Amino acid sequence: MRTQPQFRTCAPFDAALDEFTYLTRAGRRPEALAVLFDEVRPAQFAYLKALNAAVSIQDKGAADASAAAQQTVATMILVIAGSVVAALAVAFPIAIGMGICIIRSITRHQRSDRTGARRRGRRPHPNREVRSKTKPAR
Fold first, then answer.
1. Counting beta carbons within 10 angstroms of the beta carbon of residue 16, is it exposed (0 to 12), middle (13 to 18) or buried (19 or more)?
2. Quick one: 134 exposed, middle or buried, by C-beta within 10 A (0-12, 13-18, 19+)?
3. What's the structural domain count of the chain?
């Protein structure tokens, strides 16, 4: 994997820190302090600057990903709402048509019972009024 240019600044910092550590362990304190202030500190500042750049790149990427996620959620909500409206637009006329068919089949059956009862010489149900020019047979 290739490293990006802003991340290659840790090598000078590591080298300067290793030299400082070696001098400190060797007991050469004045030389170690000179290396600390002349080499380690500038390398450390460059390293921290590179880390801050990496953090800002990550922040920008996170903000872009968040915006894309919010856009995706909004689109998904619109698609679901559209699907529900489409389903209702299809289901409502079907329900109305089925209701009409059921009601007509029930009322036709009742009418045929009244006329059939009349033909057989029986009276129709007293709560159902039959309009006819001829009187029913008794």
1. buried
2. exposed
3. 1
Q: pLDDT of 2-38, one tens digit each?
A: 445 555 556 788 888 888 888 889 898 888 889 888 8
Whether the CB-CB separation of 43 and 16 falls below 8 Å is answered with yes
Q: How far is CA 107 from the centre of its chain?
A: 49
Q: What residue numbers bound the domain in which 26 lies?
A: 5-119
Is residue 31 within 8 A of residue 23, CB to CB? The reply is: yes
Hunting for tokens 């790149």 — which residue is that? 57
Does any domain span residue 110? yes
**Do the domain assignments include residue 133?**
no
Whether 131 is covered by a domain: the verdict is no
Question: Is 70 domain-assigned?
Answer: yes
In the structure encoding, which two tokens stand for residue 104, read together? Answer: 């007509």
Model pLDDT for residues 41-87, shown as the tens digit of each residue: 888 888 889 889 999 999 999 999 999 999 999 999 999 999 999 99
